[in-house]
Amino acid sequence: MKNHNNSLTSLALQKFKKNFWGVFSLMVIGCIGFISIFAYIFAPDASENANQMHLSIHSKSPGFEVQMLTIPSGIQSDQNFFSKLFFGKKNTDTEIPIASYKVGANALTYIEYASDGLIGLEKQVELGQFPNSDYRSYIDNRSFIFGTDKYGRDYLSRILIGSRISFFIGFVAVFISLIVGLLMGSLAGYYGGRVDALIMWVINVTWSIPTLLLVIAITLALGKGFWQVFIAVGLTMWVEVARVVRGQIISAKEMQYVTAARALGYNDYRIITKHILPNIFGPLIVISAANFAAAILIESGLSFLGIGAQPPMASWGAMIKDHYNYIILGKPYLALIPGLCIMLLVMAFMLVGNALRDALDVKT
Questions:
Q1: Given 142, 197, 339, 343, which is the most exposed site by the fewest CB atoms within 10 A?
Q2: Domain 2-34+156-360, classified CATH 2.60.120.10, yes or no
Q3: Number of C-alpha atoms within 13 angstroms, CB side, residue 31?
Q4: pLDDT tens for residues 251-265?
């Protein structure tokens, strides 16, 4: 039996490898996942949530460059390496975009950057504020590959860090939906009768409520926040899993191996977890891939409505909300870039799901 299972697994894996778009999409998902985990390594602005604002350079086009003066605060940070790696650097220094500067005997005089041909204010900072009076290491040319948003934040950094929410909400939501869906679907399919009728009534009632409306209700009940959205989305996606599991178990519980397990005196828990569920794992993988994509879209919709991740946390849906009016103001890329990122990630999960469905289809 073990060799037979291994051969079926190998066969499905070979079929999946032959699907170019499935393999390519899986690579895209892997790259986005890697970037989202180590986003602060790749982000030009490694501050917390890439929230370093410079209002004088707001809404600048991709490729914009400016001189940036950093004035050290002298406050020592007690962050450790892992905190900076996964949560960003607590930046206490002051960053100022400048148009030009000159150095005197005891002070550095600079002119602040101003848009639209205006001349910025002229200000001074004492050289003593810089360690060892080394001001040169605190002035650098800053390049914004994706430009800046309406608050003057580096848009590329916000995109990279915003991928975390869109990517990880899929894992959390699918995990929650699998736990609830497997439990409810297994009980309904295996025991039938009144248990099945009761669970199907709950499923039908939940199914009849619009998903976005149900998520909003749960989110408002739990409160606005990062984890609340994850839990809310997960609690609305178990219905599809439960229906699939129920149907599969109704078919599987009449198979000979289940009858043999009952004859051997195994309890219901062992029959369901050790014998039935491993044999219906294929459809669960496919529906989980589809739920990944659905969770990303739901979270983006919530963030667009202002119920999802709250500022200053970066989220692709919130970035579209902040800049959708720029579509008619001549800078549509501010809304299109996060929209394309959402589309790419959702399409990748859908293509992987289709490839898995074809690979696990025993009829082919």
A1: 197
A2: no
A3: 10
A4: 888 888 888 888 888
